[in-house]
Amino acid sequence: MVGVNRTDRLYALVEELRAVAPRPRSASWLARRFEVSARTIERDIGALQQAGTAIWAEPGRSGGYCLDRQHSLPPVNLTPSEAVAMAVSLEGLSGTPFQQAAQAALRKVVAVMQDHDVQAARRLASRIHLLGSDDEPRAVPSWIADALSAGYVLRIGYTDREGAPTVRDVEPLGYVGSATGWYLVGWCRLRDGVRAFRTDRITSSVATAEVPAPRDLRPEDLAIPYGEVRQLSLDD
Q: What is the CA radius of gyration of the chain?
C-alpha cells in the first residue's frame, strides 16, 4: 500500500478492523499491512477515535485495536470549501443550546481530513471575516444544552418578561428555536404545566439528580404565538 494518502488509509483501517471485528489487530500488524510506522497507525487510530469511530484498545500480548461494527462508520471526507462552509454555518449556532456540540463536531471532521486539505481550509477560512455586535447572544450553559439528553430535572432561576424573578423545577421536554432566540420547553412544577423559557432569561441553573417519569410533548403544547413551529429533520 505504498503511496496511499491518509484519508484512503483511514478508510482502509476502519474496513480492516470491521472485517475482523470483534477480534483485535495490533499496531505492529496494521503498520506492516499499510507499510507505515506503528506511530503513524497510533496517530490514525487517535484521529478516528476523535471523529467518533467506535475503536478501543484491548490490552495484553494478544491485544490490539478493536472496532464495534454496529456503531461505526467510515470517516467523512470533506473538501476545504465544504469544511469552511460548515464552520460558517455553525457560527449561526452561537448562543444556542447546540453551540458546544457543533464545535465538537467540526473538530472531529477536521481531525480526519487530509493534512493538505486542512491547510487549504485554514487558508480559506483566514480570508473570511464575521461582523460581530455588542448584543451577541451569550452562550447557553452546558447543563441546559445537555438537558434533553441527560434527562435530569433542572432547577432554574428565571426572569419573566415583566422582570419578575422566580425559581422553578423544570422537566425538560424540548427546544424551540428562532432567529431571535431559543426556548427551553419543559413541565414547570411551579405552574403545573408546560412552559417555554427563553434561554437568555435563565439567570441560574442546576441539574438535580432526579430523573422524572417520561412525558409526551403534544402538538398543542407548541402552540406558540410567534409563528409556525416546524420539527427538526436530519433528512433533506
A: 23
